[in-house]
Automatic annotation (TrEMBL):
SUPFAM superfamilies: Outer membrane efflux proteins (OEP)
Membrane spanning residue stretches: none
Membrane-topology descriptor: Lipid-anchor
Originating species: Pseudomonas vancouverensis
Name the UniProt record assigns to this protein: Efflux transporter outer membrane subunit
Pfam family, one: OEP
């Protein structure tokens, strides 16, 4: 009866594997002469990289902005969007807090950060292709072999004389494909450029969310002012309606005058309801932007809110426009596409694979690492594709077309950025003129209201005339304050269109 050895435990396997690794390493080192020569040859060949080296696409930019002739032309900037706490220019602690909350809790920013981490992992994966692959193995097999000496009529084999055979081996293997033509390095270039594009997109999402928070917040504060002024107008219109109703009863006012007074009150009520609805929607939007449910978010009204209107200096740094995250991202995508052309071209050249394997093979663990059981293989393999039906040429054409597409997208993004800046400059210029005109109208109506009050005290005008003039004054104030709100929101859009902030050192100043 044959004796069967008990199964080997995990600890015994680990000890044997470590022992075999040490012995096999010594074996490979004893053969390092020829292997070193192959490695040196591979390293020398790896100095070559096929494919075009990247050159940033040229684009013609105007010397000045059409709507801001004093501003300098935007030149190319270092890659990567500049960070700037531009919202501090509005001098509002509540706005500062909301933007900071959105930066850590907004789901769009969280998703963009995850995309950035994915791009980082892809760079690490590409770099792994430069290094050899090393593996270790430990295996055991048991089986029966031999022939049959006869058979029965039923077809069953009888009198078998097979023997039980078992094989145990411990091996260490290594393989390396030198980057002869730069295929791996071009792939690293591409993934690094994609990572930089992802970084710019993340900065763009942060800028966009911050601008959305500021725009919605300033719009909400504008509606706080409107609601307060409309409520005052509603009160005055109600008083005027009651006066006209009394005059109608007395016969000193016509029914037409009564209808007009009723319409004026109804118009103010509808405007008030519209303003209140819009304020609630702004508040809901702010809740989502800071990452909470609308039911969990509330901003008390501030009827006496004063807008801060940050304006750019007459001359701006030339690096502002092309630091925009979307422009940086588009340029980096073009760089990534250019590197992929080199990857496609490298496929036309042969590949060299260097492999080495050493270890021990025997019939039992006991005595496995004896010299007679030693095995090893070492050698290079050179391969070249002769015919692929045009697949490599098609891949190269696809890479070239992708690059041309990304270059066109980059240039289009820059032109779109120029248009965006011009639109915002135009809006701010006209809103400034409107705000100045409305302010003058408000000041004149203040004088008229004061004059009407004086006449009322003198007994030359009625209370109805005073209320009517006060109503005109409130409407003039509403027009002026609304234009200030629009101008403040327009400055946010200009901040965003320039990539955030007026100056490159604004972030450093904000942190002082």
């Amino acid at each position: 009866m044959k004796q069967h050895k008990p199964p080997v435990g995990a600890s015994m396997l680990a000890i044997s594997l470590c022992h075999s690794t040490r012995i096999v390493t010594d074996l490979l080192l004893s053969r390092a002469g020829s292997l070193l020569q192959l490695l040196l040859m591979g390293l020398m060949l790896s100095s070559c990289m096929v494919g075009p080296d990247y050159q940033k696409p040229d684009i013609e930019l105007p010397q000045t902005f059409k709507e801001g002739s004093q501003w300098q032309r935007a030149q190319a900037n270092p890659q990567g969007a500049l960070d700037s706490q531009w919202w501090l220019a509005y001098q509002d602690p509540i706005l500062n807090e909301l933007i900071q909350r959105s930066a850590s809790a907004n789901q769009s920013i969280i998703a963009a950060e995850a995309a950035y981490r994915l791009a980082q992992a892809q760079v690490a994966s590409s770099r792994a292709g430069l290094w050899p692959t090393v593996g270790v193995g430990l295996s055991a097999a048991r089986g029966e072999g031999g022939g049959a000496s006869g058979s029965t009529t039923s077809g069953l084999t009888g009198n078998s004389s097979g023997t039980i055979e078992q094989t145990v081996s411990a091996t260490l293997s290594a393989s390396w494909e030198p980057d002869l033509w730069g295929q791996v390095r071009r792939g690293i270039e591409s993934s690094q450029a994609s990572l930089q594009s992802s970084d710019a997109l993340l900065a763009g999402v942060r800028l966009s969310i911050g601008a959305s928070v500021a725009t919605n917040y300033l719009g909400l504060r504008q509606l706080d002012i409107d609601i307060d002024l409309l409520q005052q107008q509603q009160t005055i219109n109600q008083q005027l309606l009651e006066m006209v109703q009394a005059q109608t009863v007395q016969g000193t006012a016509t029914n037409d005058q009564l209808l007009v007074a009723q319409d004026q009150l109804s118009s103010v009520i509808t405007n008030l309801q519209t303003a209140q609805r819009s304020r609630e929607q702004f508040e809901h939007a702010l809740a989502v932007l800071v990452g909470v449910a609308p039911a969990q978010f509330n901003l008390p009204a501030t009827a006496d809110y004063r807008f801060t209107l940050p304006m750019p200096p007459p001359t701006l740094p030339s690096s502002l426009l092309l630091r925009r995250p979307d422009v940086v991202s588009a340029e980096r995508l073009a760089a990534a596409a250019n590197a992929r052309i080199g990857v496609a071209e490298a496929a036309f050249f042969p590949t060299l694979n260097l492999t080495a394997e050493g270890g021990y093979r025997g019939s039992a663990f006991g005595g496995l690492f004896a010299l007679p059981n030693r095995i090893w293989t070492l050698g290079p393999a050179l391969a070249e594709t002769i015919f692929d039906g045009g697949a490599r040429e098609a891949a190269k054409q696809q890479a070239q077309a992708s690059y041309d597409q990304d270059v066109a997208n980059y240039r289009g993004t820059v032109l779109g950025a120029l248009q965006n800046v011009e639109d915002n400059l135009s809006a701010i210029n006209h809103l400034h003129a409107q705000a100045s005109a409305y302010e003058q109208m408000y000041q004149r109506n203040q004088q008229l209201f004061g004059s009407t009050q004086a006449q009322k005290h003198a007994g030359t005008v009625s209370q109805q005339s005073v209320l009517t003039q006060q109503l005109v004054l409130l409407q003039a104030e509403q027009n002026w304050r609304d234009t200030q709100g629009l101008l403040s929101q327009g400055s946010v859009a200009l901040f965003q269109s320039l990539g955030g902030g007026w100056q490159e050192h604004s972030a450093a100043q904000a942190g002082r």
